[in-house]
Design goal:
single chain, 112 residues, alpha+beta, Alpha-Beta Plaits, globular, Antibiotic biosynthesis monooxygenase
Length: 112
């Protein structure tokens, strides 16, 4: 599977940025990526005070390459960059080796 990781540092981000990011994901970003052509799924992760990241899995290499190219060009103005106050520190294509769904199933939710 074809992955892409986009990571921002939160080391110098304003206080309370984690909650602002979670609200942005719940109110805007989740809906933007739900049903997106070429995307299998996206997860958002953060470690407070350290980093915030989007992890994408694409259906085709063309979908990943198109998204990565466009995102990289616009990264300084991306919503995450504006909220955090700096561009991503990492935009990296990767291979997803496997995905397992546990007994309790997968939950697609804007906020857990």
């Amino acid at each position: 599977m074809l992955g892409l990781t986009v990571r921002w540092s939160l080391a110098d981000a304003p206080e309370g940025v984690e909650e602002q990011l979670a609200a942005y994901v719940a109110e805007t970003s989740h809906a933007r990526f739900t049903g997106m052509a070429g995307l299998r799924f996206k997860t958002w992760r953060q470690v407070p005070g350290e980093w915030f990241e989007g992890c994408y899995v694409f259906a085709t290499s063309e979908a990943r390459e198109d998204f990565q190219r466009t995102f990289t060009q616009d990264a300084p103005d991306a919503p995450g960059s504006r909220i955090i106050g700096s561009p991503p520190i990492l935009i990296e294509a990767c291979d997803i080796v496997a995905v397992a769904e546990g007994w309790d199933g997968f939950e697609a939710s804007p906020r857990c």
